[in-house]
Amino acid sequence: MSGTGRTSARLAGILAAFLRRDLRDALTYKLSFVTSVTSIFLSSATFYFVARLVPRDAPSLAPFGGDYFSFAVVGIAFSSLLGVFQEGLASVVRSAQLAGTLEALLVTPAPLPAVLFGSSLYALLFQAFRTVLHLGVALAFFGLSLGRVNVPGVLAVGALTVLCFLSVGILSASFILVYKLGNPFGWVLGSVSGLLGGVVFPVALLPPWIRWVSSLLPVTYALDGMRKSLLASAGFAEVLPDVAALAAFAAVLLPLSLAAFRLAVRKAKRDGTLSHY
């Protein structure tokens, strides 16, 4: 086996070990799965009845298929998934600080990115499952209205969105590594995105004096592209502006976040604060 093959196999083994550990722990809390499914059903039911107050021909919904229930379900399901990518790595770092295991993690032979990503892998996969389940429940019980699904559009938007929000997660983890408490990246992006990113209502409804902020948020393009691809039968050319915007965000955020994390690790080691919490 070549050196590259051995490295890939080693990384796969590390990720699999973390996944087995977290899955074994999760299976001891079976009630958590039941409550998770129940919350999905209740969320879908809430927006189903709210949607009955919104006319289907509302102009602001026209680019996304015209149905408010479908618009809201896609927004809630995918924003929850993006939240895990945004907060997952920071949670891993903070938990390791409190447990006193961060220093041990950082000096293991395993590559640091594999350790951090492996520690949050189960949470990411479980939330991805919940997103699919959320759409499935809405489709089966509440009449989620899908268009002709644009698979290339869904894949392109999804992949670039993951890169953007994983980058924000790395920035958040960098801040936690140095300052221990507080997470301005996650808080600001999470709070502002929920209000101005078009999660539960179209951005077009915002007053013009604040609508421009939405254009600075990756979640705006992520949800627009996903809704057009899933609900409005849009072709790839129609979601290309969203794909291009997400690619630009990823091109800036990913190298910036990796550089910030390297600097944060270096500073924490130099200051001897890895074991502090």
Short description:
With 277 residues, this protein is mainly alpha-helical.
Describe the structure.
- The protein has helices at 3-26, 30-51, 68-99, 102-106, 112-141, 151-179, 184-196, 208-211, 218-230, 236-271.
- With 277 residues, the chain is mainly alpha-helical.
- Helix 2 (30-51) crosses helix 5, helix 6 (151-179) runs antiparallel to helix 9 (218-230) and helix 6 (151-179) runs parallel beside helix 10.
Based on helices, strands and strand pairing, what is the structural class?
Answer: mainly alpha
Helix coverage percent: over 70%
Cα distance, first to last residue? Answer: 42 Å
Q: Tell me the fraction of residues in β-strands, as a range.
A: under 5%
Q: What's the SSE pattern?
A: HHHHHHHHHH
**Biggest sheet details:** none
**Average pLDDT metric:** 80
Spatial shape: globular
Radius of gyration: 20 Å
**Sequence stretches where pLDDT stays below 50 over 5 or more residues:** none
Number of helices: 10
Strands, total number? 0
